[in-house]
Amino acid sequence: MNKEAIFRILRGAPAPADNSRLLFPDGAAAWRERAFAHSDIRRMAEEMKEEADRFLQRPLPHLPWSLFRRFEVDGSRLPYEKPYFEKRTRLTVLAMMDVLYPEDNAYREALYDTLWSICDEYTWCLPAHLTGRDPETHVDLFAAETAFALAEILTLTRQHLPERIASRIDREVRRRVLDPYLNRGPFGWEDARHNWSAVCAGSVGAAAIYLMDDARELAGVLEKALASLDCYLDGFADDGVCQEGYGYWAYGFGFFVYFADLLKKRTHGAIDLISRDKVAAVARFPQHCFMSGRKTANFSDTLPEAELDLGLFHFLHARFPDVAVPHAGLRGPFRPDPCGRWAPAIRGIVWRDPELAGEPWGGMSVWFPDAQWLLSRHAENGRTWFFAAKGGHNGEPHNHNDIGHFILHADGDTFLMDLGCGEYTADYFGARRYAFIGNSSLGHSVPIIGGAVQREGAERRAIVLEAATGAEEDVLALDISGAYPDAPLARWVRTFVWRKTGVPHLRLEDAYRFSGKPVELVERFITPFPPEFAGNGCVVLSAGGGRGVCIRYDGGLMAPEARTMEFAAHDGGTMMFHALDFKVRAPESEGRLVFAFSFIP
Fold first, then answer.
1. What's the pLDDT at 601?
2. Could you check whether the bond before residue 186 is cis, i.e. omega within 30 degrees of 0?
3. Strands (E) located in 343-410
C-alpha cells in the first residue's frame, strides 16, 4: 500500500482524542473494573506488584563503558545485556503498576527515574548490532522495542507525567528511531524474511501511531512498515511453520500482531493485517509444536521450555476460533520476559480472557510439507507422547545442521532432545557458528559418516520420499545424503515409523549405500539422561520413577558407547548432555541399521 493511499485512509479516520483508547477502547478505568472482578486477573496483578517491590529495593542498573566495550574485545554479549535488560524489566514492571494500581504513587518516582535514565543512554541498540554503525541513529531490535515501549507508556501516563520527561521521551524516540527510519535507511532488516522485520517495523510503526499527529508524516512511516511486514509474512511458507521455533514465533509474530491491532484501530478497521493470507496458518503453529505442558519441539535456536503468553493466544483465538487455547494452568508467574519487554507484558493481561479455561494439548499428527516437519502428539488416559522429525535444509533462519534429526518425548520428559539455542556471542553468529556443538550436526541425533558431519547451506537439503500421517501410524522417509558432501555416499535413507496404538513406539531405519569404499559409521543420539547399558541389545534412558525409553539394536552389528558433553546454554550457564553413539563394527558397501525405541511403562 503506497503512502497516498494510507494518507487518504488516515485523513478519513481521525485519531482518538486520547490515544490510550487504542489499547483500552473503553478506557483503562473501565478495563480495570471488569478485569479485577476476576480472581485470576487480580492474582496476575499481585504477581507483577511483587516484581515491582523487588525493583524498589535495587538501584538503577548502570551501563558503563567497561561493559559496552566487551563485545568488541572478546565477543561476549551477556555482561552488557544483563543490566540493559534489567533496566527494561524495571521500566515494564513500574509502568505496569501505573496501569494496574494508578492510585498507588509509591512506584511513580522510580518509574520517572527509569524513563529519564533510558533517555540518557548512549544508545538504545545492543553492542552486538552496532559494528560500523552510528550508535545514536541505527535502529536495531531493541532500539525499536524501546521506542514502542516509551511511546506507549508516555501515552498511558501522560496525565500525570512531568512535562519535562514527556517532552524528552517524545524527542528521543523521534531522534533515535522515527527520524532515522524515515531519513537514514534503509536498514538491513527492512526486507528480512524473519523475526527482525516484524519486531523492528512493528515497533517503529506502533511508536509512530502513538506520537505522530501529522497524517502525512505517519503515512510515510506506515508505508515503509507495511512493506517490511509483507517481507515478514513472505518468510513463511503456506504451512505457517516458524522455522526459527516457537520462541521466535512468539517474538516476531507477537510484534506483528501488536502492531496490526493498533493499526486496525487507528484506521477504524480499514487496514487489517490479520486478515491477510497465511496469518491464520501462522497463528496455528504453536498448537502443533508444544509436546506437553510448556515443553516445545525446539528445532533451531529456541528453548526447550517456553513461557506461554495466554493473552496472545486469547487474542488470536478470538480472531481464529480453531487456534487452540492452552490450559490456564500452563501460565507461569506474571512477569516480563527475560528481556523485560513492555509490549507483550501489558497485552498479556489486557488481552487475557479469564473466562477461557483452555485445555491440555490434545492428540494430533501433522506433516508440514514446506518446512518438512512431522509433528505427532498422542494423548490417551491422561498421558502424552510426542514425536518430531525434520528434513528441510541447512540454510534455514537460525540454522542448525540437523537434517534427519528427531525428538522423542513422553509426559514431560524429553528422551531424545534438541539442545536448542546456545549462548549468543560474536562467534555464534559468525564464521565459527558450526564449531558450537548445538549448531553442528554433532549435537543432533543424526549419523556421523567417515568422521564427516553435515555441512551448512540451503543446497544441503533432504529429499522427501514418503510422508504420511494416520490414526495409528505416521511415516517419514528422507534421503539425507545431500547433507554429507564430504562422505562417499550414494544414498542414505532415514525412515521413521511412529506407531500410536496403546503406548506408542518408534522404529528408525537407516538404509545406506556408499559410492566408494566403505568408511566408519556412527549413529549418534542426543539425550539428557545417562545411558544405561542393559545388555541383550538394549540401552535404557531412564528419567527416574520408572519412566524411561529402551533403545533396541543389533548388538552383533553395532557397539554402543556414551560420552558426557558440555553445552554453553543461552543464559550463559553450562548444561551437560550425553551423546550415545552406536559404532558399526564392519561397515559394508551398503547396509541397513535399525533401532526400536520403546517407552518403559
1. 76
2. yes
3. 364-368, 373-380, 383-390, 393-394, 406-410
The Cα 117–Cα 123 span in angstroms is 12
Whether 236 contacts 242, CB under 8 Å: yes
Alpha-carbon distance of 427 to 568, in angstroms, equals 13
Cβ atoms < 10 Å from Cβ of 540? 15
Domains of the chain: residue spans and CATH? 3-350 (1.50.10.100), 364-600 (2.70.98.70)
Paired strand residues for 235: none
Residue 147 · residue 207 · CB < 8 Å: yes
Directed axis angle between helix 78-100 and helix 342-350, to 10°? 30
pLDDT tens digits, one per residue of 167-211: 999 999 999 999 999 999 899 999 999 999 999 999 999 999 999
Arithmetic mean of pLDDT over the chain: 97
Give the end-to-end CA distance of the chain in Å, rounded to a whole number.
Answer: 58
Mean pLDDT of 406-422: 97
For residue 275, the SS3 value is: helix
Classify strands 473-479 and 295-296 as parallel, antiparallel or unpaired: unpaired
Residue 520 corresponds to which cell in the numbers above? Answer: 566408519
Q: Which amino acid is at 359?
A: E
CA distances from 40 to 35, 314, 344 (A): 9, 15, 18
Q: What is the pLDDT of residue 536?
A: 87
pLDDT digits (tens, 9 = 90+) for 250-291: 999 999 999 999 999 999 999 999 999 899 999 999 999 999
- Residue pLDDT, tens place only, 362-387: 999 999 999 999 999 999 999 999 99
Q: For the chain, how many residues are written?
A: 601
Q: What is the rounded CA–CA span in Å between residue 248 and residue 206?
A: 20
DSSP string, 206-270: HHHHHH---HHHHHHHHHHHHHHHHHHHHTS-TT---TT-HHHIIIIIHHHHHHHHHHHHHTTTS
Contacts of 233 (CB under 8 A, 6+ apart): 256, 276, 277, 278, 279, 282
- H helical segments located in 21-140: 28-35, 39-56, 65-68, 70-74, 78-100, 108-120
pLDDT of residue 277: 85
CA–CA dist 294, 338 (Å, integer): 16
Strands, E assignment, 462-504: 463-468, 473-479, 489-499
201's enclosing H/E stretch is: helix 195-211
Amino acid (one-letter) located at 407: I
Please answer whether residues 481 and 491 qualify as being in contact, where contact means their C-beta atoms are separated by less than 8 angstroms.
yes
Query: Hey, how many other C-beta atoms are within 10 angstroms of the C-beta on 160?
Result: 11
Distance of CA 114 to the CA centre of its chain: 28
533: exposed, middle or buried (C-beta count within 10 Å: 0-12, 13-18, 19+)? exposed
Place of cell 508444544: 290
Q: Which of 223, 254, 240 is nearest to 285 (CA)?
A: 240
Q: Is the separation of the CB atoms in 302 and 252 below 8 Å?
A: no
- What is the grid cell recorded at 508? 528408525
> How far, in Å, CA of 524 to CA of 558, rounded?
12
Over residues 204-229, the pLDDT tens digits come to 999 999 999 999 999 999 999 999 99
Rounded Cα distance, 540 and 548, in Å: 7
Q: Percentage of the chain with pLDDT > 90?
A: 97
